[in-house]
Structure to design on (233 residues):
């Protein structure tokens, strides 16, 4: 089992705040956010972590020494400014399977990695900071059949998902048809679009975690709000 952390992005919505500091390494209660995440992975005995970097990639180098008792692998995306994150995910594709996939801007309060699903699963959350989100819809068997993009107050993707080997293999085999040069250059495409396009072929469930378990650090305003929410910890 391993974790794949997507951390190549520019964080442009943070403006001056991320001009010299990568968004994933902004401090939460004095600790860089990505360190918090890796520490939780370590506590859950997940010691192989693949981090896809791009913008300000050198700022992540210290993590290999900081977590020297883990297997921290950095994969550099040299096209982070001109390709979408499908290219980032492609760099980690050989290691995809029995994997947690984590958006680096996910700020965690609770360690959700200690309870490993047996099937591929979107971890969902009912957000306290509202906006348009991707919301998995399931049938009576609990299988995801549709993805809504909506501002409705319903459970949405949390930024963390788990993919077992069988589901990952299907996605890996299909990946090249979703990663042509034209598709990689289309900024509105994400790696997450690929399993959504294949829902008829995949068995994916959901697991809702409590709204205080994790937050999305997406703008300066909600970064400040998250800081306030976590100050009591």
């Amino acid at each position: 089992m391993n974790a794949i952390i997507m951390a190549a992005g520019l964080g442009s919505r943070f403006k001056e705040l991320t001009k010299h500091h990568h968004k994933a390494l902004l401090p939460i209660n004095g600790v860089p956010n990505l360190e918090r995440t890796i520490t939780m992975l370590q506590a859950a005995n997940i010691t192989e972590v693949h981090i896809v970097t791009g913008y300000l990639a050198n700022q992540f180098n210290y993590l290999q020494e900081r977590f020297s008792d883990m297997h921290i692998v950095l994969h550099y995306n040299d096209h982070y400014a001109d390709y979408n994150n499908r290219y980032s995910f492609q760099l980690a594709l050989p290691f995809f399977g029995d994997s947690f996939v984590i958006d680096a801007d996910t700020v965690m309060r609770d360690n959700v990695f200690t309870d490993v699903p047996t099937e591929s699963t979107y971890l969902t959350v009912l957000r306290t900071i509202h906006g348009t989100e991707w919301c998995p819809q399931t049938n009576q068997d609990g299988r995801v059949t549709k993805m809504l993009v909506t501002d409705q107050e319903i459970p949405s993707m949390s930024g963390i998902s788990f993919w077992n080997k069988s589901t990952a293999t299907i996605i890996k085999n299909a990946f090249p048809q979703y990663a042509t040069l034209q598709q990689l250059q289309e900024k509105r495409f994400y790696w997450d679009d690929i399993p959504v396009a294949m829902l008829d072929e995949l068995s994916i469930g959901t697991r809702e975690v409590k709204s205080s378990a994790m937050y999305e650090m997406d703008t300066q305003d909600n970064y400040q709000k998250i800081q306030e929410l976590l100050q009591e910890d």
In short: The chain has a mean pLDDT of 94. The chain has one domain: 2-211. Residues 2-211 form a domain with the Spore Coat Polysaccharide Biosynthesis Protein SpsA; Chain A fold (CATH 3.90.550.10). The two ends are 29 Å apart (CA to CA).
